[in-house]
Amino acid sequence: DTGVSQNPRHKITKRGQNVTFRCDPISEHNRLYWYRQTLGQGPEFLTYFQNEAQLEKSRLLSDRFSAERPKGSFSTLEIQRTEQGDSAMYLCASSGTGLNSYEQYFGPGTRLTVT
Amino acid sequence: AQSVTQLDSQVPVFEEAPVELRCNYSSSVSVYLFWYVQYPNQGLQLLLKYLSGSTLVKGINGFEAEFNKSQTSFHLRKPSVHISDTAEYFCAVSEGGYSTLTFGKGTMLLVSP
Q1: Mean pLDDT over all residues of chain B?
Q2: Distance, in angstroms, between B92 CA and closest chain A CA?
Q3: Rounded CA gap, B44 and B52, in Å?
């Protein structure tokens, strides 16, 4: 069990560019979550998948954001036409099902800086 | 909708002293409660969770928390802290059978010698 991994760990981009982040969950976990954390705040829920199905999306997830989990394994989060307000840490977490779904394991995050 | 309040943004404490980090939540339905710890430049690690049963929950690294339904609180305690406990601590809640988490703003625990 290597834990949840995220790539890249850091991304600096110019306003207006598109960026894509990847998350690899713990292999036997079928639930995958994306959260965003800004400075001085706790993580805020963005979206989650059960297997390849995207079951819930937060109102925070504007139409510039899209997430996929095509084969029910890794997931990608894309931000189009980035804005300075998108600068944040993007966290991925995974969990099992049933009562195990309440125990989420987090990756180290991808820190996005939009200049 | 649920919300989580962590009243203290920073808690300074001397090594080997006891500490309590406060967490209050609001929800109209049953909740599950969690404490996570975040060390610098790392992801969040689960310290402990309350799903049901005994209201006193023990976690890793000597931490414990008590669920108080009447006061809608889930305060985190440790009887004797170490320098290595310096980190940010987040309280979180999931509501009504949903597994997505709502986090508080966090409390920075600063342990000095």
Answers
A1: 92
A2: 9
A3: 23
